[in-house]
Amino acid sequence: MLLGRQTWLFNQKPKIISTGTVGGPIESEGKLADDFDLLHKDLFMKQPSFEQAEQQLIEDACKIAIQKQKMRFEDVNFFLSGDLVNQMTPTNFAARNNKIPFLGISNACATSTGALALASYFVDTNGADFVLTGTGSHHGAVEKQFRYPTDYGAQKPPTSQWTVTGAGVGLVSKIGTGPEITSATIGKVVDLNQSDPLNMGAAMAPAAVDTISTHLAERAVDVNYYDLIVTGDLGEIGNSIALEMLQDQGIQINENKFKDCGLMLYKSNQEVFAGGSGAGCSAVVTYGHLWKKMNNKQLNKILIVATGALLSPLSASQNQSIPTIAHAVSIENGGV
Amino acid sequence: MLLGRQTWLFNQKPKIISTGTVGGPIESEGKLADDFDLLHKDLFMKQPSFEQAEQQLIEDACKIAIQKQKMRFEDVNFFLSGDLVNQMTPTNFAARNNKIPFLGISNACATSTGALALASYFVDTNGADFVLTGTGSHHGAVEKQFRYPTDYGAQKPPTSQWTVTGAGVGLVSKIGTGPEITSATIGKVVDLNQSDPLNMGAAMAPAAVDTISTHLAERAVDVNYYDLIVTGDLGEIGNSIALEMLQDQGIQINENKFKDCGLMLYKSNQEVFAGGSGAGCSAVVTYGHLWKKMNNKQLNKILIVATGALLSPLSASQNQSIPTIAHAVSIENGGV
């Protein structure tokens, strides 16, 4: 059901019935290591390239989510997924191997919630029985493509973020048990003329704020309706900007109830600059840590707001500012 | 309504109520020039780069589609779109300017029908009143990114295709008149181990065949149900391979009823090798030429099957084969 312009309410109880999460070596040493299904010690994961390692991450996350339910890929109607590598080849090649009818979703690091919103929409409206959805990213692949090969040892400012090596996938269905996806808000592109590609958190904060405030207004709930609002990968700087912007708009959220996946994933002594980022960041935290907390009833109503910076190395070199976007998905125990 | 594993039947009469199509200089001299709303004589379109020219194409197509209905962008719920440039910046920047809640769709040149399927699904299930959807491509931007800068004058084999400079957009709604979108089949990735990036038609033909045969089986209609089946951009070689493969499977389609957007767009004396291609190819033909023919009742039941090659320059240089995909959408006068 459409609420307002851009929010869907899901009445038919689509649930995340299974998940798969895979991480890399830095994630193995992080704060949420226990919440991963599979952790790799080596960044190459026995593959010949970082891009193929990323494909492996996505494939393994898919396999784990399906195997937990004792299902087969043939039982799944659609695979909705995307990543940050040019032309999304890791996802495309993973889709080649799982052979599930596939729609590629591309909203940078906001892809995880955009794709989860779609998956929930299809299941809610009987357009699918089972949808597999998720995202991945790989530190080496992303650094090589967007910045410099890591071997150069280029220095970074403290505003920059650390791309997560990991993939997180969820299986959405009405059949089975799990926390329910109750609503979603599709964001619009926001661009406040930030142009520093080494400070994406600041660029993305206004998109997160726009989507959160739209979501609360269209769903007609107070910010305290949720136990927790979790942004995708704003990092330290973006998180504090977003908190201030929300409070300026009269949305009085307690900072303990406003977290960021990029800040939850690593320990304070890990050298990840302003925090984690990448399309896999919100996916591994959502489908790993948060999904477990929802299943344990430690959390009961959460809003996940993955954020994406829609720039490219070319748009940055052509001196353009950074358009950003955020999509919100609410997950609740007990439904709407 | 879900039919089989991967086909949706639309019962609530979502329609393409308006379209906008924009083309470049080569398209101005083509066979379908009269079917464009706007044609540019210059490849730069007064922009400083090819990528920004592509953004302009998409923006203009959106504006035209909306203005024909005397609407505003604020009236539209969602914008579903994508393109071939890394990180889809032309589409992302167009979405920044139209400010419509945005989901980026990325299935290479199959994006046009993938996004139209989604748009129709949302309207059919009351998840949106108005959805704007379409794709664009730009010859200069794509050559520069995927092959060589055009200034080099690199030679190409006759199996290669010519990337269309153009954008096509449709406005989907139940409110208003226009041909109805009656069903859609989301394709799965097919890879028969082709690896020549200068012969994409041959690589994509099996994906088109897989989606067409699945569509006919799941919708339970004979191939002759349709007046015309139009593939996205298989070109001459892919078109003849697909025809033969369909006939081998016992799907007896007359070759006059099996066309390809890449072969419809240009005149035979234009030097476009095996035909047109690019994400804009199927979009300009669908939302221009075919939409007019449907409105005039010269055609009444068509199936559009846009095809995409999911490779990247990197995956090709890493010696990987070309995964491909196709999504089918049926458009009919008089509904289901």
TrEMBL record, chains A, B:
Any one GO molecular-function label of the UniProt entry: acyltransferase activity
The protein, known as: Stage V sporulation protein AD
Lineage: Bacteria, Bacillati, Bacillota, Bacilli, Bacillales
Alphabetical list of InterPro entries matching this protein: SpoVAD, SpoVAD_sf, Thiolase-like
Superkingdom field: Bacteria
Alphabetical list of Pfam families matching this protein: SpoVAD
